[in-house]
Specification:
The chain is α/β, with parallel strands linked by helices. The protein has ten helices and five strands; from the N terminus they run βαβαβαβαβαααααα. Helix content is about 50%, strand content about 10%. The protein is elongated and about 80 Å long.
Length: about 240
């Protein structure tokens, strides 16, 4: 079983190997790599992160080519969630809150997933709108901020260019409002300080789903083999002249 995982931004390689130790781990996917994976005989491809500006993005048609070739394709968190949502009707498997948001929201935009970074080891320079949105919703649920405050902050954050979405940029947008800026600034600081990365949580969940699916397949295969071994003649249901 050959497994390829495209990530290392939403989730690090060490965590991936802890869940799927036999997987081949790559950085964010770009156009053409999935087609090479098909040729290389991969059985499972999980797209979590992907490139879209520095290199051409993986296309839905590439995902569909993989599915037609019998490859099981999974997606979550970022580029993977978007492509999985686009190709779900053709057999792709998506997972997570971000995947569900993409499917259900009529106002979803690609830039909600965009994030600026220098290198995989240098840390994020910006925070995605999706991470900010779910962090705000979580604090509303915990009654740490009001729904009205969350909606205002999400609107301000949404209006920022994806490569400029940061606490500093949001603070400047809040100050431009003048009215109620103090309470909004406090709420924004809370979101940035307490928020967990939704992309990471979705990625971990996806990997656990893949692990479970693979274990289920192994169990089914073991039962088939066990049943065949228990039969006095496993091929008795085939016509004999097939083998003469």
């Amino acid at each position: 079983m050959k497994i390829k995982i495209y990530s290392q931004l939403s989730i690090d390689a060490d965590t991936i190997y802890k869940i799927l130790p036999y997987a081949d781990v790559s950085g964010p996917v770009q156009r053409g790599q999935v087609l090479r994976d098909i040729a290389d005989g991969y059985n499972v491809i999980a797209i979590i992160d992907g490139q879209f500006e520095q290199n051409l993005a993986v296309t839905p048609s590439e995902v569909m080519d993989a599915l037609r070739s019998g490859v099981r394709v999974y997606g979550s968190s970022s580029m993977g969630a978007m492509r999985a949502a686009e190709c779900e009707n053709y057999g792709a498997t998506g997972y997570g809150k971000i995947f569900d948001f993409i499917k259900d929201s009529p106002t979803f935009r690609d830039d909600y997933l965009g994030q600026l970074f220098i290198s995989r080891n240098a840390g994020w320079q910006t925070k995605t709108y999706m991470d900010f949105y779910f962090a705000a919703q979580d604090l509303v649920t915990k009654k740490k901020i009001s729904k009205k405050t969350a909606l205002t902050l999400c609107e301000l954050y949404e209006n920022l260019f994806y490569a400029e979405r940061s606490e500093a940029a949001l603070t400047q947008s809040i100050q431009n409002l003048k009215k109620g800026s103090a309470s909004l600034s406090e709420a924004a600081q809370l979101i940035f300080s307490e928020a967990k990365n939704q992309k990471t949580k979705d990625a971990e969940g996806l990997l656990l789903l893949i692990k479970k699916d693979l274990e289920d397949v192994q169990n089914i295969n073991a039962k088939i083999v066990s049943g065949a071994q228990a039969s006095p003649d496993p091929l008795s249901f085939y016509p004999r002249d097939l083998y003469t």
